[in-house]
């Protein structure tokens, strides 16, 4: 399902995203129009959420291969028939697009499987976690996350109570 994200302050449409999108990186961003901070719902801090173990399962790739096979089957099926309302010279276009999409999805799944098997994906997540922990050392960033309702464990609060002494934070 595609969702639309608007700046909570000025209402400018900032981006569209899929509900299941899960990116890793800095959550707090600045609106290009009004310059006020917002929390980007696509982004997650691994230091807060932990490394999602389902990233290292094979089920997602099996599903991708099945989807890719379906696209290829669909393309082959279209090659066999004629599409109504499509001019003769571009009859090949749609089935080719299906086939290529299917092949691309299967290749992406195979690359994913290899990255899990070789430990490359695990190493990438370990690196992302270290980057996330690095960001959590910034009291200003932790303060903003808490302001936006993120539950930041005590060990990341550091000295922010002193620095932002005027504000009561959980
Ligand atoms: Zn704005």
Order of helices and strands: EEEEEEHHHHHH
Strand content: 5-15%
What is the residue-mean pLDDT, rounded to a whole number? 91
Number of E-state strands: 6
**How is the biggest beta sheet arranged?**
2 strands, antiparallel
Associated small molecules: zinc ion
Poorly predicted tracts of residues:
none
Measured distance between first and last alpha carbons? 34 Å
- DSSP summary: helix tally: 6
Q: Numbering strands along the chain, what is their spatial order in the largest sheet?
A: 1-2
What structural class do helix, strand and pairing data support? alpha+beta
* Percentage of residues in helical conformation: 40-55%
The oligomeric state of the chains shown is: single chain
Shape: flat
Tally of distinct domains: 2
What are the key terms here?
alpha+beta; binds zinc ion; 47% helix; single chain; two-stranded parallel ribbon; 2 domains; 6 strands
Written overview of the protein:
The protein is of the alpha+beta class and 170 residues long. The protein folds into two domains: 2-45 and 136-161, no CATH class; 54-120. Helices cover 47% and strands 12% of the residues. The chain is built from six helices and six strands; from the N terminus they run ββββββαααααα. The radius of gyration is 23 Å and the shape is flat. Bound molecules: zinc ion. Zinc ion binds at residues 7, 9-10, 12, 31, 33-34, 36.
